Amino acid sequence: MTPAGTARAGGPERSTLDKAADENFPVAPFFLPRAWRADLMAVYGFARLVDDIGDGDLAPGGADARLLGVSPEEAEDRLILLDAFEADLRRVFDATPNHPLLRRLQPTVRQVGLTPEPFLGLIAANRQDQLVKRYETYDDLLDYCELSANPVGRLVLSVTGTSTPERIRRSDAVCTALQIVEHLQDVAEDLGRDRIYLPADDMKSFHVQEADLATTTAGASVRALVAYEAERARNLLNEGTPLVGSVHGRLKLLLAGFVAGGKAAIRAIAAAEYDVLPGPPKPGKIQLLREVGVTLRGEG
């Protein structure tokens, strides 16, 4: 028999977990202890599913809505789905959840002693996505990242038993940077969802209009704006990089992968001359491995 936390997944659970291969960073690489891999995949399954609900990217057929007790008539209402998902999340802590990804999460929550707060933060971020489509200032965007990204790093530290106030601070910097980089890669896709994560104040400073983001290739002003935001993300990654040196062994390699994934993505954006509108610039495996080596050596 396979432990509950590592049970073979199928249906909507499998389609959600399969998305781990498309992330900018390794989610649960082979070199980690088996228990960590199972716990990290359980956390990833939650985070990926809540994002899929918020983005309207659930697997076709309505299986997730049925599992959450949402009627077919309400299955297109993302706020209703998020409310149902939160109710099922709360069962993780005091009962038995209905969705298989949350049942997969339950052993991790109990064994590691996770609290509801980081999970609720991720749900709150996706609720915000339904209500807030533009961000006026960079500080507003950072507040969003506090909900949408930082809980993930805090969960990784909790799962690996390495949380300290300083590590959480560094982790928050890395996670916020990764979120900003993802926003830069997905400018066109986000605009298709009527969302813009480039701060309005910065757009104004660089003389960028929303219509400039709807073209097939970026003009000079858009490229300059993307370069500016990419540099902000790079600075955050540099601020967070000492997190890697604060741990040892296989965890050090995992965290180096997170940091390197962000830095490699920024290099890919720069290699595209900051033109992110044709599609998300993605780093190759060789570039990612090179960045991991640089991060592990503490070279930046």
Strand-helix topology:
Blueprint: H1 11-17, H2 34-55, H3 63-67, H4 78-94, H5 100-112, H6 117-131, H7 138-148, H8 150-159, H9 165-185, H10 187-192, H11 200-205, H12 220-240, H13 242-245, H14 249-271, H15 285-296
Helix pairs in contact: 2-4, 2-5, 2-6, 2-8, 4-5, 4-6, 6-7, 6-8, 7-9, 8-9, 9-12, 9-14, 12-14, 14-15
Describe the structure.
It is built from 15 helices and no strands. The chain is globular, with a radius of gyration of 19 Å. Residues 1-9 have low confidence and may be disordered. The chain is an all-alpha fold.
Proportion of strand residues: under 5%
Name the shape in a single word: globular
Query: Care to count the β-strands?
Result: 0
Distance between the termini: 45 Å
Mean pLDDT: 92
Helix content range of the residues, please?
55-70%
Helix segment count? 15
Q: What integer value in Å does the Rg equal?
A: 19 Å
Instruction: Identify low-pLDDT runs.
Output: 1-9
Question: What structural class do the secondary elements suggest?
Answer: mainly alpha
Summarize the helix and strand pattern as letters.
HHHHHHHHHHHHHHH
Report the biggest beta sheet as strand number plus sense, adding barrel if it closes.
none
Name some characteristics of this structure.
single chain, 300 residues, mainly alpha, globular
Provide a brief overview of the structure.
The protein is 64% helix and 0% strand. The chain has 15 helices and no strands.
